[in-house]
Amino acid sequence: MTESSETPADPAGDAWRGSVPAASAADLENLLGTGLASARESLERDGAFLPFALVVENDGDVRLVAITPADMAADSGGGIDADGMISDLTELLRQHRDEFRAAAIVCDITLLDEDSDAIHVAAEHQDNSVFAAVLPYGPHPETNELEFGELSADTSEPAVWVD
């Protein structure tokens, strides 16, 4: 699990849409919604999820991109290197970026300031538009049922369409 010491910023409504082309905003929103839905489903079913990516192919289809975690060394305690998986996903997306027009990496993070886990989606478009968001989650104190907080915007830098 990746850690973030920053508290996510207020999403400021739909203000970000005015700064990107409409087609790019639609692709980024599609990736955000699909990424959040997939991660929530995995959390509710399995209690966890591994980092994964989504891409909007040049024809508009959305495709899931996943990798298998590297074998862990015996002294690692059997944990999964989520940061390594994110790096591997990013590199894979960079190598194939001519095959799609937008991409997002979805991962599980810890919001240190809020003492909460969260789904993090960082999406970017080939035109250099970026958008990221976090969705805090945790068990309800009485029922232990998984509950989700408010979706909020987060800062992000391009990672796929950079040289």
Question: Can you give keywords for this protein?
Answer:
163 residues, alpha+beta, globular, 31% strand, 8-stranded mixed sheet
What's the main sheet like? Answer: 8 strands, mixed
* Element-by-element helix/strand order: EHEEHEEEEE
N- to C-terminal distance? 27 Å
Sheet/helix structural class = alpha+beta
Mean pLDDT across residues? 86
What is the gyration radius calculated from CA atoms? 16 Å
Helix coverage percent: 10-25%
Number of helices: 2
Strand content: 25-35%
Please report the total strand number as a whole number.
8
Looking at the structure, what is the overall shape? globular
Low-confidence stretches: 1-13
Short description:
By secondary structure, the protein is an alpha+beta fold. The protein has helices at about 20-45, 80-95, and strands at about 1-5, 50-55, 60-65, 100-110, 115-125, 130-140, 145-150, 150-155.
Describe this structure in words.
This protein is 24% helix and 31% strand. Strands 1, 2, 3, 4, 5, 6, 7 and 8 form an eight-stranded mixed sheet that branches. It has helices at residues 22-46, 82-95, and strands at residues 2-4, 52-57, 62-65, 100-111, 116-125, 130-139, 146-148, 152-154. By secondary structure, the protein is an alpha+beta fold. Mean pLDDT is 86; it is low at 1-13. A hairpin with a 6-residue loop joins strand 6 and strand 7. The two termini are 27 Å apart. The protein has two helices and eight strands. The longest helix has 25 residues, at 22-46. It is globular and about 45 Å long.
